[in-house]
Amino acid sequence: MGNVRSVRSRNFALTVPALLLLVVFFILPVVSLLLRSVMEPELGLGNYKALLASTTYLKIFLNTFSVSALVTVVTLAIGFPVAWALAIMPTRWASIVFAVLLLSMWTNLLTRTYAWMVLLQRTGVINKTLMGLGLISEPLPLVNNLVGVTIGMTYIMLPFIILPLYGVIRKIDPAILQAAALCGATRWQALTRVLIPLAAPGMVAGALMVFVMSLGYFVTPALLGGTANMMLAELIAQFVQSLVNWGMGGAAALVLLVVTLALYAVQLRLFGTARMEGR
Predict the structure, then answer these.
(1) How far is it, in rounded angstroms, from Cα 248 to Cα 252?
(2) Which residue, 123, 157, 141, is CA-closest to 228?
(3) Distance (Å, whole) CA 279 – CA 196
(4) What is the pLDDT of residues 26-65, one digit of tens each?
(5) What would the pLDDT profile of 183-201 be if each residue is shown by its tens digit?
(6) Can you tell me the distance from the alpha carbon of 231 to that of 216, in angstroms, rounded to the nearest whole number?
(7) Alpha-carbon distance 117 to 142, whole Å?
(8) Taking CA 129 as the corner, what is the angle to CA 123 and CA 135, rounded to the nearest 5 degrees?
(9) Does a cis peptide bond (omega within 30 degrees of 0) precede residue 41?
């Protein structure tokens, strides 16, 4: 009994630094936001009422969720074929593609967003190329709108959906697809009835990760979008930095946090940790 208690005490001591880190950098800031959201400028739920009763703020909420959903769908549509190609291509080529993905993730976010601003502007490479090929007669509006936000955020989010998808697809036995072909399944049937259902946990895990990250994105929508495409993170920054209204900023941040945790809980409920990891 003494040895068991000693082991438990030692194990608890090893977890103390992680628990302190969690308390200092997560629990205390969340509690601080919660207190400010109900205490500033006066005690009560006035900030939440003002936030949810205003059509302007509700429009920003709707825009945040719609843009996040659109980016998630586009990212998944692009990321699935890339993950499948990585899983079946030779190791040498797969290593090169992985290096490109990791390099894009390690590159500064602001630098990547400014690069897309240069590419997408009216005098940018994309418009000049399309006009040079005779496909368009005048530059396309690709920045300060939904198009620019979607392109920029999709590029940034792609690695976060390719990597979990690759891990799940890599574990699928190729003999299953061969068996489907021997049973008379076409390529489309093998894709829709065999591969996609088996890869569904990875798809959901990656899609939720992209959706949740998109909900709180600030830099890319602020630079590539316009005032009509304002998202919730921009609104929170405006409350805190421009209006110095910590109460409203805290209320908006808490709403975003609750939505994020609710989505994660639903995902765990439907799929569970083991299926999410492809086990």
Answers:
(1) 6
(2) 141
(3) 16
(4) 888 888 878 888 887 778 788 888 888 888 888 888 888 8
(5) 887 888 887 888 888 888 8
(6) 8
(7) 9
(8) 110
(9) yes
